[in-house]
Amino acid sequence: MRLLIIEDDEKIASFVKKGFKEAGFVVEHASDGNTGLSMALASSYDVAVIDIMLPGMDGLSIIDELRRHRNKLPVIILSAKRSLDERVEGLQAGGDDYLTKPFAFTELLARVQALIRRATNVPEPTGLKVGDLSIDLLRRTVTRAGKRIDLQPREFSLIEYLARNSGRVVSKTMIMEHVWDYNFDPQTNVVESRICRLREKIDKGFGAPLIHTVRGTGYVLKET
Amino acid sequence: MFLKKLNNLHKTLALKMTTWYVGVFALSFIVTFVVVFMLIVAIVNQRMDDDLEEDIEDIASLLKQGGFDRIKEEMSIDTKGDEAEVSFFRVWKDRKLIFTTDLSSWQGLEQPDIELFQTLEDGEPILETIELPERDHSVRTVYGFIDTDTLLQVGETLENDEEFLATLFKGFLFILLVMILLGGPIGWFLAQRNLRGVQEVTKTATEIAKGSLDRRVPVSANGDELDYLAQAFNSMLDRIQNLIIGMREMTDNLAHDLRSPVARIRASAEMALNKDFSGTDWTTLANDTTEECDRLLTMINTTLDIAEAESGAAKLKISQVDLVDLVVDACDLFQTVAEDKQISLITQLPATCRIQADLQRLQRVVANLLDNAVKYTPEGGSITVDLNDDEQSVHLSITDTGVGISSNELPKIFQRYYRCDSSRSEYGNGLGLSLAQAFVRAHGGEVEVESSPGKGSTFTVRLIRSPYVG
After folding, report:
1. Which of B336, B339, B368 to mutate to test the interface with A (most CBs of A within 10 A)?
2. Where does residue B63 fall: left (phi above 0), alpha (psi -120 to 50 degrees), or beta otherwise?
3. Size of interface A-B (CB pairs under 8 A)
4. pLDDT tens per residue across span B187-224
């Protein structure tokens, strides 16, 4: 996977670059808008992470230019502004995404991966498998080691979301967003409590646990 | 000092008011006088002219009855003795002067010219005002035919009329003078009296500027405009004082709540400088730092959200929202947390309840209220969510069997960063209720609270079905 970062803040750029390299990406970096645009047009990338405020040309103009050249490169915009204007919010409708600074790298990684998955048109699976856990998305049933596990609808959504991102850390905010459609994280740790219940049903009594807590960031579903 | 006062005097409102008062009064008096005087002059002149024309008609009828000798006799009687100075008569026949009364005091009378004769022969009598060299006053005179060939001139002095008008004029001038002389001091006195209230307000404002914010303007019981000013001024001061007290409390709390995470981050980073710092310690440090930073960020963002909602800077994204769905989802969200504490979450909801609102903001309002309810209800308690609606408004109440809020803390719970003594031990940033209130108010609604310590609290969100969007 080839990734282009257009970001003028060297510290953030190197932090993001390092993270993506560790995740197995080939990363190239441009520190101003014009260089970034010519790089994006000159060679083919799978995804681009673009800061909105850039010297030369701003992030949204880069996207406009790319689309004018019929370039469908999926883009994640990084915005330091808290209140997003409609154009930035409209990115999601256009198949792109945005993230506000400061962000957790895991969140950026998850969003980038989701974007690539969407862009490469992987056919919707009918089932998910993580270790000995299998999820039937059509019948909405979960089995582990051949044993049927009864889940409440919300618990099913949660395990489905974790399984779809298996091996990748998902933050509490991402869980709130995708499982409950809430764009904030309540003070009381409702997600933790759900995960706790889920662990009771999925991990308890089975060998190695599948649900892992990553302190300070979120949760990951993976085989150890 | 005195000179300075004198110098400032011409700038004072009292002097301006007095000047205006006297000026406007004098001007209106002068206008009235001019109008009345002109009317009187017109009436006096009209009366004189009517008299003169009547004389012509009387003598004309006498001439018909008694002939020329009869009118001569009549004219002589009219100008007998002192009367000779008051009026005179002249008669022409075929444009030749044939008779005059005693003209000794009427020197300088001119012969009428031919044009006058021609004009007169065509019709109406002619009235004239003439000046005679030996007389101090003007003379009003009329020419008129008393027979086909006989012309009569009657003249009368305007002495009486002019003296009357002059006396009248002097009288008016006198009154005007008295008025200006008396009006000044009276106006000054009235202005001073009225402005005393303003001076009080100024005095108080000056004292407040020096730092004593608890000062208030004394309010008299007059119920006049100045009392309203004083009352408005005082209520403004109350509001400012409350805001300042609130702000002071907020900054105190903010300082504490923002500094604590920073202090923790700093402390753990400092510990990392210690020689004995091992590999797992580094992981803990990184994790702690991330968590503390997230907490700080949440507080900053929430504070900004509240400020935006309160100032009206945040635009609501209004859409059709079914509150029943929203409440069901929110309860679902807190279900497991409640179960963990053996709290029963009871809902009493209608089938549907649609309103125009900002979904995401209302989600946060309901979640924050449920969050508090779960947090402050001890194990085994219950939380009841009740949704009632009528045509205009919707009432959502969340009742818990928690610790409750004491009556002296009740007014403060919606303040930013305020935390009740009993809540200090719980995780939280003291922003939840402020945010809920700010968001509900942005919808044109209100959050109300009832509580009895030890028994529990009820938070009620009142929303109007179609809010104004400011």
Report:
1. B336
2. alpha
3. 63
4. 888 888 777 778 888 888 888 888 777 888 888 777 77
- Measure Cα distances from B166 to A192, B139, B160, B179, B406 in Å: 107, 16, 10, 20, 87
Q: Shortest CB distance from A187 goes to which of B304, B363, B427? A: B427
pLDDT tens track for B51-75: 998 988 888 888 888 888 888 888 8
> Which chain B residues are Cβ-neighbours of A83 within 8 angstroms?
308, 314
Q: Answer whether A224 touches B (CB < 8 Å).
A: no
- Angle at CA of residue A181, ends A177 and A186, nearest 5°: 70
The residue of chain B with its CA nearest to that of A189 is B337
Please check whether residue B198 touches A, CB under 8 A.
Answer: no
**Cα–Cα distance, B20 to B171 (Å, whole number):** 24
CA atoms of B97 and B152, how far apart (whole Å): 10
Sign of CA dihedral A66, A72, A74, A79: positive
Instruction: Collect all residues of chain A within an 8 Å Cβ-Cβ radius of residue B289.
Output: 216
A 10 A CB-CB count for B329 gives 16
Residues from chain B contacting residue A181 (CB–CB below 8 Å): 329
- Tell me the per-residue pLDDT of B321-354, one tens digit each, with 9 for 90 and over: 899 999 999 999 999 899 989 999 999 999 888 8
Q: Judge whether A81 is closer than 8 Å to chain B, CB to CB.
A: no
Nearest CA in chain B to A154: B332
Per-residue pLDDT 10s for chain A (224 aa) are 899 999 998 888 988 998 898 888 889 999 999 999 999 998 889 999 999 888 888 888 999 999 889 888 999 998 887 666 767 767 776 778 888 888 888 888 888 888 888 777 767 778 899 989 999 988 889 999 989 999 988 899 999 999 988 888 888 888 888 888 887 777 778 898 999 999 999 998 888 899 999 876 789 999 87
Q: Is the peptide bond before B411 cis (omega within 30 degrees of 0)?
A: no
Distance CA B204, CA A1 (A): 73
The span from the CA of B37 to the CA of B198, in Å, is 42
Judged by a CB distance cut-off of 8 A, whether residue A180 touches chain B is: yes
Name every chain A residue with its beta carbon within 8 A of the beta carbon of B374. Answer: 188
**Report field, pTM of the whole predicted structure over 0.90:** no
User: What ipTM does this complex have?
Assistant: 0.72
A83/B contact by beta carbon, under 8 A = yes
